[in-house]
Design a protein that fits this description.
Length: 645
Amino acid sequence: MGYTLTEKILKAHLVDGEFVKGGEIGIKIDQTLTQDATGTMAYLEFEAMGVPRVKTERSVAYIDHNTLQSGFENADDHRFIGSVAKKHGIYFSRPGNGICHQVHLERFGIPGKTLIGSDSHTPTGGGLGMIAIGAGGLDVAVAMGGGAYYITYPKIVNVKLTGKLSPWVAAKDVILEVLRRMSVKGGVGKVIEYTGEGVKTLSVPERATITNMGAELGATTSIFPSDEITKKFLDAQKRGDVWTELSADPDAQYDEVIEINLSELAPLAACPHSPDNIKSAEELKGMQIDQVCIGSCTNSSLMDMMKVAHILKGRTVHPDVSLSIAPGSKQVLNMLAQNGALAIMIDAGARILESACGPCIGMGQSPNSNGISLRTFNRNFEGRSGTKDGQIYLVSPETAAASAVAGVYTDPTSLGDMPAFEMPGEFIINDNMVVPPAPESEMDKVEILRGPNIKPFPVTAPLADSISAPCSLKVGDNITTDHIMPAGAKILPLRSNIPAISKFCFTVCDEDFPARAESIGKSIIVGGVNYGQGSSREHAALAPLHLGVKAVLVKSFARIHRSNLINAGILPLTFVNEYDYDKISQGDELALENVRADIEAGKTELTLKNKTTGADIPVMCELTGRTKDIILAGGLLDYTRESLK
């Protein structure tokens, strides 16, 4: 029996564990990336481990999230990250160089390599044939220090593509169709591997759009083969020497198979407030809109921008619509400026933003009250745009541009003939905004520059013998990391200051939660299905840690968030019987007696006592040998320190 592409790369990087579905494996990591919203904490954690220089083949620190410098905080964080990078062997992508995933695809990604990044959309690299996985900052810090990265050996889903996209139907519509079929929790514990003749019709940027939004499935990652299309892209980036041909064996076995005929797809949109709330262009046609935003790590490539420019050429943005465009990298922006496409966009009335994440994370361009905004982004969670009642629709660049001109939601297939958009034979290469690290001989001379907003990693402690604490918060299904730890221009500058950012924890759900949790001292949170979906931000675990949360009990977890809770030393529990969720109310006194001894003994089913009602509730605590040791130690940082001694 042959191997899938996923299995081939994982096997080549296996350093711990066995290839058994559902078991834990440790893999060697070749590359890491961070961005500035998560990077400060990741580098504080790396420093705390005491490793002088990164041990990866390539680690890159990007500045792309907190680029709105309305106070000293963001600028101080950038300066800190730059100095850490210089000292510890990390390449530093300066503000203005672009969004981490777009730049990494262009300049650093290598087929067959492993990459983890402290951003949930790191699977973008799967468009090049990488195993690229989003992770918490602490996991990235450990990988930079030479440690393995641990995942559950995944199920592998074959999405078999046939046919070819029709004119004005886009890669965004492909991943929206996958989301329509699988849902935002359908990819948990799985890798999505794309195969079939249809793959050959998709460029690397189109493939990257699809793997990028695989994060919205809850998947571990997504991957395309590395073929002649991949080689052509890397040759144009003058990196053809790193290309390797990679694909699944003809007789590879998959856990699931989904077939999609690209020729049958039509434009789609994800409607408020979930990426899997899919409707067709026909259903939305004529809907009045207020705003259009084009960009993000999903759809900011040169080819995306060229299609937008073609649609805008000779036209004017509708007077009732605000259109903003953010090219994904300096390379893209520079090429648009040189080929005249940027002038077309400006002439049409677009507002050109810097090459950064911007509106995707609520960093500016929030829509008007109850405003309808079409965005080429990857998430449309409630309040993420910065406007609590904003109505956010996720669409392709083609749909976005056509709608911006018309003033209403417009099916781009009504635009008529589509010209052939060809990838350039050569991209403009100028890496002058990437600062290399200091030579090893000079690293000791580099001073780490810390601003007053940078606070240490929260204090952790080994797991207590017993946990007795009230339920400080009870929430429902599909709680996202934006609910737990909101983003936006007011909050993101506090990412390196856990005590300060904790004051905003869960305020989307309950404005009183931070004060209540702090006054209680220690507590337990209860939630529903798919708890913690969304971004990789470990602040959604670190803020509750600071506020005294000792355990989180839910119906089911999203992958990255569960890992982040374990890394923070917070006990992740799930209901054995989902109906027991109704047996707990906010304020109930809960107890896990002899919990440390039970976990040390390897018990997976524990008993949670509701002291208020007298109910005994069975709960699952599924920890492997390694994650068990992490929880007992009080978190990954303490565990790693001990293992490095």
